[in-house]
């Protein structure tokens, strides 16, 4: 089947090649990293020697150490040509960074690797590369890409399907009407991440606790909570657990890139709080799979997650804003740009309108401020410089 290019990612990768620095593609499993790497290999083969190593292919099971990996690369390098070393799921090789640190310094060699857990971007690896790498984070499809993959026009129905199923690229090969197969696929991805990337890699002993914690985060995505508050909740559910254990398990979940931790930001003091974070799933479909019995009750959470993912995908650093005891859903920063965003399912009610617009009015600067909603009567409302717009317009037209 023909692969659909994700040009934005390919162009970002190309911009880093030939500069003596490795390119590291990160993201959770099945977000599309392997496909992008394969497309890259096909295009680069026209003007160079491509050394492609898929660490999930059994033929490469003998590459267990950085020495094995380095010797494989050495035997495939062609002198006098541009060599592109592309390695999929490189974290499967023990101490892989030692091999890459050598090859990234060799003339005529470019290194591009993918990985599915944050351990490969630890401080140890950062120091090993001595700053000589670029990270390109591959996310699930955003709404614009979803429309492209499914060959759909923007509509209420298309947006509803996106919010329900999320953006795992492979899902477009399964008919939207085949709900059982699509649900089974999401379940298989969750099981793979859960077992392979967390339980085995982190040597988790209390698997039931970890599963309950993951489902708790899914059901409470977009809410502020701490390790202490989660531990207290779980103890109330007859699960004895310490805040330290909860903190360790939350770190493990974030390390898989399945869940993002979003810090709170003091707008007035311009500082980041160390406690009481929010968490969002990197794929709406995975989050909905874990809350599939409650999906109809939490559309606003899903919408908020979609806005967060788009902001992150556009290169913004995203925080939860705090100002005078009021919360701003998102403070998005990108270089010198700042944007404030409130997300509300409806804004037609007087109380809701006052809450969403009133919180933004407290911010005394001239950066853009938006209220994003699915209210069909939103039109184009402006109040004190604050723009209210439909979620579809915000994701397709405002952000780029």
Describe what this molecule looks like in 3D.
The protein contains 15 helices and 15 strands. By secondary structure, the protein is an alpha/beta fold. The protein has two domains: 7-137, Rossmann fold (3-Layer(aba) Sandwich); 143-398, no CATH class. The strands form three sheets. It has an eight-stranded mixed beta sheet with strand order 8-7-10-11-12-13-15-14, with helices on both faces. The protein has a five-stranded parallel beta sheet with strand order 2-3-4-1-5, with helices on one face. Strand 12 (337-344), helix 14 (350-361) and strand 13 form a beta-alpha-beta unit.
In terms of topology, how is this protein built?
Layout: H1 7-16, E1 22-26, H2 33-44, E2 49-54, H3 66-76, E3 83-88, H4 96-103, E4 109-115, H5 123-129, E5 133-137, H6 143-150, H7 156-165, H8 179-200, H9 207-219, H10 227-236, H11 243-255, E6 259-262, E7 264-266, E8 271-272, E9 278-281, H12 284-290, H13 299-313, E10 317-323, E11 326-334, E12 337-344, H14 350-361, E13 369-373, E14 381-383, E15 386-390, H15 391-398
Helix pairs in contact: 3-4, 7-12, 8-12, 10-11
């Amino acid at each position: 089947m023909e692969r659909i290019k994700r040009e934005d990612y390919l162009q970002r990768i190309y911009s880093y090649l030939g500069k003596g620095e490795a390119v590291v593609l990160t993201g959770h499993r099945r977000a599309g990293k392997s496909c992008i790497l394969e497309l890259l290999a096909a295009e680069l083969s026209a003007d160079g020697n491509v050394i492609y190593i898929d660490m999930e292919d059994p033929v490469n099971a003998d590459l267990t150490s950085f020495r094995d990996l380095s010797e494989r690369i050495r035997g495939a390098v062609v002198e006098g040509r541009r060599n592109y070393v592309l390695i999929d799921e490189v974290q499967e090789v023990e101490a892989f960074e030692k091999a890459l640190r050598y090859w990234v310094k060799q003339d005529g060699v470019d290194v591009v690797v993918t990985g599915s857990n944050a351990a490969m971007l630890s401080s140890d690896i950062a120091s090993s590369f001595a700053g000589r790498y670029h990270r390109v984070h591959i996310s699930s499809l955003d709404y614009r890409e979803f429309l492209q993959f499914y060959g759909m026009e923007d509509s209420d129905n298309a947006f509803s399907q996106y919010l329900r199923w999320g953006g795992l690229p492979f899902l477009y090969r399964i008919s939207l009407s085949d709900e059982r197969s699509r649900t089974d696929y999401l379940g298989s991805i969750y099981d793979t991440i859960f077992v392979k990337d967390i339980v085995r890699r982190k040597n988790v002993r209390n698997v039931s606790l970890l599963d309950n914690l993951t489902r708790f985060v899914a059901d409470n995505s977009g809410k502020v909570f701490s390790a202490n508050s989660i531990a207290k909740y779980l103890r109330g559910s007859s699960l004895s657990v310490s805040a330290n254990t909860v903190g360790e398990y939350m770190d493990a979940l974030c390390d898989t890139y399945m869940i993002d931790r979003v810090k709170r930001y003091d707008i007035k003091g311009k500082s980041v709080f160390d406690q009481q974070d929010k968490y969002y799933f990197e794929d709406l479909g995975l989050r909905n799979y874990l809350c599939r019995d409650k999906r109809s009750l939490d559309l606003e959470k899903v919408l908020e997650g979609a806005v967060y993912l788009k902001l992150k995908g556009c290169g913004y650093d995203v925080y939860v804003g705090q100002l005078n005891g009021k919360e701003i859903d998102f403070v998005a920063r990108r270089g010198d740009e700042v944007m404030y965003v409130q997300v509300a399912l409806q804004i037609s009610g007087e109380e809701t309108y006052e809450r969403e617009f009133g919180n933004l009015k407290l911010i005394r600067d001239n950066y853009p401020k938006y209220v994003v909603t699915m209210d069909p009567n939103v039109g184009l409302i402006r109040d004190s410089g604050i723009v209210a717009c439909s979620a579809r317009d915000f994701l397709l037209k405002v952000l780029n």
